[in-house]
């Protein structure tokens, strides 16, 4: 599954304030993880209630007694094939419900004699057959025992069938069920999505099975290792099209229960897991192409979407990149695409970013559709990377599947890593591989530097309940997984990594594995490659990265060549309670550079050692962790820091671009951890007036963002602003020049992002030309609303700045355009920008609109309030508003919803005074009776964060302001 929440790269500063304040979220996360620990220690005897990052899992659980009280299937039965028929109704029935009906026959083998059948079934109404929930028959001469009793065990989501005798080992049986389910709009299992086209309401029946929702579509052995072949038949309204994992074999018009319907029967699937199934009925249209695969077979590739989107060409880009990516992966994995077709479909309502159903990948519209007129460079990159991510899963994950969800990190980490390779192949001019530094490595560093982080790998028995499984889909699994696999591929070299991978995929095709199976095959590839010399086996090297949480900071003293490693903790006062089998030491691959020349790779295997070549003399500097291929931070003796700073200031281009970003990010984080002083971190930003590349600028902006949040209401803000203005002005001028006075778009992909940053930051720090520019563009649009002169890349930042600098006229115009917007991304840009006004009455009016569903759709309410809160003027207004309306917001929007805790985070993000802390505590107390679900946790986190901010400001404010003051002169 692709991550659902996407921090738009095109939002500029507005986005940064809400999206990327990694430092600020850290304390929040630590609180979540702390709870995890409490839970672990409190309830060792509980079956299944263990480590999770959950918010809502109860810890009180009695010890289960019966097999159906366990969440895992017993190993007595193993499915072979299913015949499934489903019929979704796209109109409400007499009870006002959308429903589907279905039948399923599962053929299974008995592995161990048993008188009990447990099969998953959730929220399905099963038709009784002779008073039982199912009918059991024997195949190939097996005589089945009769059914003694059957019932649905709601908590564990089982259909339980007790038998009067035992099933015999080695025999084959068939279990038939007939059922009815609701085609709800809950985005889980078989569900419905609605949209209007040309004023007509349209209903789509679609599905999301991962991780545990297939059981909501039909009774099944719903675990990834329970692979089977699926024969699927869909009945659907005439004039609609039915899609599933395989090609359709026949489509005939017929009648069923007196209704005129069409029946579509699909080719049997390959042996596969239930979580990868997909069923879709819609009246969508498609574009189609064909790809010749490495076996010279012709593969059908189609992109499906709403008719209008297809006719506007919005599916064309995805179609164009799919072919090259499939060919790339076939070569990379050295395995042909395993299926006979590839469908990808954009759905109006979809929970995750995308889902890699085998042969029928589902997406949010924003992750698959691209409109070259309206969409920005960020929108386009989103499509490229998500398509690359999902296609990578067709082999890794789908062809070879991990045995259980505890290994999810390998599946998602892998796809999160190779998506950059696939995207790079499709768009070779983008330099997209560099971006993994920002969007995965730096991102997960922030989380994994907490004392309460957790290791990538979990024990199988720690992950049982559906909620625990869902929680595996987190940043550690995706981004740390990607980062350590990238490191592995770098030190093995890509050809060796790919060779091991290919041997793993061929060996385990259509089967299941555990992560060490991959290590075995990589080790074989290493053994057959004498040039690769490793200090230990792949197992022993990787175990240290996989079985212990966190990562090291490697410190080099260039005066004597001493290298040391230490577990990096962002909060120096935090206490690590989780023991590590390796005492928090790692086998660290060190790629490094001396005097501007790359040196032979070194392995740091001890806590401390000397590597004499790392001594330097004179003004020679050392740079460690080239291209950040290793998952660790780097610190140096002061002299070497000074030399690096000096190099940045004289000729920064000598240092590779990724390492410029690394130097900034390491220095700021080392300062945060009190390993270097804050002034050193600030001094890494001094050279920025010469920097023209995106990655270092983005890294700097993210780190400076915390300073901005802490100071933008205080007396020192003027000095900070003046310094940043001085640094950004040359970049702003640079873009003015290369875009011929803002009439063109920069050619380079990353330059397009950097242009957005330049404009956002320049306007924010008061560069007059920026304000004039954004205002005049916006004015031009207001004069002629039918011709928007603002380039899609720049819309978010231009709208925001024009509205911030303008008054009610600008605001009302943008509001009108929002009401008229037909493209979701355009509406989102306007909605965000409306929160940028500096006029309190407009902000208050907007806050009122946010809770009026006639003005702002319910799904956008909390985001709108959060946007207002990210505006320095809006923050206190939003805080007052949230306090006043808490019980209403809570009952209408709150409970367990994710966006609800985002709201609290957004509103309290700047909190850094004793007064605010007191208000927050008071608020928590006053609303204790309202109850708050995930809100409670968010509030506790906010209190923690505020205390940490107060301490940070007290310790740092004065000398930071002094530094900005002296630097801005
Ligand atoms: C399942 O469907 C296939 C194809 O329609 C058919 O050949 C097979 O006999 C069916 N199996 C069962 C157990 O009904
Ligand atoms: C299933 O049965 C329950 C209880 O009788 C009922 O409330 C529900 O509406 C039924 N579901 C469907 C889809 O008919
Ligand atoms: C089935 O009926 C629909 C609409 O009534 C028609 O468009 C379609 O061509 C028919 N399909 C077949 C296979 O006869």
From TrEMBL:
* The protein's enzyme class: hydrolase
What are the residue boundaries of the ERAP1-like C-terminal domain, all occurrences included? 621-946
For this UniProt record, the keywords arranged alphabetically read as follows: Aminopeptidase, Glycoprotein, Hydrolase, Membrane, Metal-binding, Metalloprotease, Protease, Signal-anchor, Transmembrane, Transmembrane helix, Zinc
What EC number(s) does its UniProt record assign? 3.4.11.-
Please list the GO terms describing molecular function. Answer: metalloaminopeptidase activity; peptide binding; zinc ion binding
Q: How does the entry describe its membrane topology?
A: Single-pass type II membrane protein
Q: Which residues bind Zn(2+)?
A: 389, 393, 412
Q: Which GO terms describe its cellular component?
A: cytoplasm; extracellular space; plasma membrane
**Ranges for the Peptidase M1 membrane alanine aminopeptidase domain?**
317-545
Q: Residues in domain Aminopeptidase N-like N-terminal?
A: 79-276
**Residues annotated as site: Transition state stabilizer:** 478
The UniProt entry's GO biological process terms, in alphabetical order, are: peptide catabolic process; proteolysis
Q: Where in or outside the cell is it found?
A: Membrane
Q: Required co-factor?
A: Zn(2+)
Cofactor binding description: Binds 1 zinc ion per subunit.
State where it is primarily located.
membrane
Record carries keyword rRNA-binding? no
Sequence intervals crossing the membrane: 12-33
Active site per database record: 390
On assembly, the entry states: Homodimer.
Q: What does the sequence similarity comment in the record state about its family?
A: Belongs to the peptidase M1 family.
Q: What is the protein's given name? A: Aminopeptidase
């Amino acid at each position: 599954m692709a991550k659902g929440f996407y921090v738009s790269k095109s939002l500029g500063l507005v986005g940064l304030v809400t999206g990327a304040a990694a430092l600020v979220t850290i304390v929040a996360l630590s609180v979540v993880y702390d709870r995890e620990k409490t839970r672990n220690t409190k309830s060792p005897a509980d079956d299944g209630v263990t480590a999770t990052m959950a918010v809502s899992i109860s810890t009180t659980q009695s010890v289960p007694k019966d097999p159906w009280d366990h969440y895992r299937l017993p190993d007595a039965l193993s499915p072979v094939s299913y015949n499934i028929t489903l019929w979704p109704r796209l109109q409400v029935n007499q009870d006002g419900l959308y429903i589907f009906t279905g039948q399923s026959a599962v053929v299974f083998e008995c592995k161990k004699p048993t008188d009990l059948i447990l099969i998953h079934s959730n929220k399905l109404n099963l038709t009784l057959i002779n008073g039982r929930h199912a009918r059991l028959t024997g195949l190939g001469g097996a005589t089945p025992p009769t059914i003694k009793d059957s019932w649905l065990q709601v908590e564990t989501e089982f259909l339980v069938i007790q038998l009067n005798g035992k099933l015999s080992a080695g025999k084959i049986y068939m279990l038939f069920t007939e059922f009815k389910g609701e085609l709800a709009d809950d985005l889980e299992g078989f569900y419905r999505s609605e949209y209007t086209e040309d004023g007509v309401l349209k209903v789509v029946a679609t599905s999301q099975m991962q991780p545990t929702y297939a059981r909501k579509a039909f009774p099944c052995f719903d675990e990834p290792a329970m692979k089977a072949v699926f024969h699927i038949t869909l009945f659907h309204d005439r004039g609609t099209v039915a899609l599933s994992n395989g090609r359709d074999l026949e489509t005939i018009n017929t009648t069923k229960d007196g209704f005129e319907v069409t029946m579509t029967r699909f080719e049997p699937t390959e042996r596969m897991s239930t979580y990868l199934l997909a069923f879709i009925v819609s009246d969508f249209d498609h574009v189609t192409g064909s790809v010749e695969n490495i076996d010279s077979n012709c593969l059908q590739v189609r992109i499906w979407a709403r008719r209008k989107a297809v006719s506007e060409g919005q599916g064309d880009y995805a179609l164009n990149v799919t072919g090259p990516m499939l060919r790339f992966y076939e070569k990379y994995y050295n395995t042909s695409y395993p299926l006979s077709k590839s469908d990808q479909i954009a759905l109006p309502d979809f929970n995750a970013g995308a889902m890699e159903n085998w042969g029928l990948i589902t997406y949010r519209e924003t992750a698959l559709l691209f409109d070259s007129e309206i969409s920005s460079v960020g929108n386009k990159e989103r499509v490229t990377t998500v398509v690359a991510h999902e296609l990578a899963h067709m082999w890794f994950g789908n062809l070879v599947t991990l045995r259980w969800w505890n290994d999810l990190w390998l599946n998602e980490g892998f796809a999160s890593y190779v998506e950059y390779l696939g995207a790079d192949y499709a768009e070779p001019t983008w330099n997209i591989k560099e971006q993994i530094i920002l969007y995965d490595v730096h991102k997960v560093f922030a989380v994994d530097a907490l004392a309460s982080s957790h290791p990538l790998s979990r024990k199988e028995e720690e992950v049982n309940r559906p909620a625990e499984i869902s929680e595996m889909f987190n940043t550690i699994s995706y981004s740390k997984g990607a980062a350590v696999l990238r490191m592995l591929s770098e030190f093995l070299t890509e050809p060796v990594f790919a060779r091991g991978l290919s041997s793993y995929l061929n060996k385990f095709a259509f089967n299941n594995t555990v992560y060490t199976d991959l290590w075995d095959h990589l080790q074989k590839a290493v053994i057959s490659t004498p040039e690769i010399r490793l200090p230990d086996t792949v197992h022993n090297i990787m175990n240290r990265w996989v079985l212990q949480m966190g990562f090291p900071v490697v410190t080099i003293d260039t005066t004597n060549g001493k290298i040391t490693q230490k577990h990096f903790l962002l909060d120096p006062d935090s206490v690590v309670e989780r023991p590590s089998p390796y005492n928090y030491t790692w086998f660290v691959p060190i790629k490094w550079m001396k005097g501007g020349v790359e040196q032979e790779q070194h392995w740091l295997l001890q806590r401390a050692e000397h590597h004499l070549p790392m001594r330097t003399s004179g003004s020679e500097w050392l740079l460690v962790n080239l291209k950040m291929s290793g998952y660790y931070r780097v610190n140096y003796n002061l002299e070497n820091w000074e030399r690096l700073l000096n190099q940045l200031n004289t000729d920064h281009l000598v240092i590779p671009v990724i390492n410029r970003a690394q130097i900034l990010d390491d220095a700021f984080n080392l300062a945060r951890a009190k390993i270097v002083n804050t002034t050193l971190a600030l001094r890494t930003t001094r050279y920025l007036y010469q920097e023209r590349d995106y990655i270092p600028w983005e890294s700097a902006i993210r780190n400076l963002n915390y300073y901005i949040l802490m100071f933008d209401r205080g007396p020192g803000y003027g000095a900070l602003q003046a310094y940043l203005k001085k640094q950004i002005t040359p970049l702003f001028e640079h873009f003015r020049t290369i875009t011929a006075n803002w009439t063109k778009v920069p050619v380079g992909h990353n330059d397009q992002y950097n242009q957005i940053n330049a404009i956002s930051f320049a306007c924010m720090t008061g560069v007059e030309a920026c304000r004039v520019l954004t205002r005049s563009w916006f004015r031009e649009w207001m004069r002629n609303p039918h011709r928007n002169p603002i380039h899609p890349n720049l819309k978010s930042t231009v709208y925001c700045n024009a509205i911030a600098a303008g008054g009610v006229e600008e605001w009302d115009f943008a509001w009108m355009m929002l009401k008229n917007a037909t493209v979701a991304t355009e509406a989102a840009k306007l909605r965000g920008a409306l929160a940028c006004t500096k006029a309190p009455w407009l902000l208050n009016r907007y806050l009122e609109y946010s809770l009026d569903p006639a003005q702002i759709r319910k799904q956008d309410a909390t985001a709108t309030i959060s946007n207002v809160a990210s505006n320095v003027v809006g923050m206190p207004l939003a805080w007052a508003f949230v306090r006043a309306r808490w019980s209403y917001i809570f009952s209408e929007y709150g409970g367990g919803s994710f966006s609800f805790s985002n709201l609290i985070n957004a509103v309290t993000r700047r909190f850094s005074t004793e007064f605010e802390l007191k208000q927050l505590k008071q608020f928590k107390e006053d609303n204790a009776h309202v109850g708050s679900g995930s809100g409670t946790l968010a509030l506790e986190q906010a209190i923690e964060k505020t205390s940490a901010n107060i301490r940070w400001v007290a310790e740092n404010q004065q000398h930071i302001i002094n530094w900005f003051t002296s630097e801005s002169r």
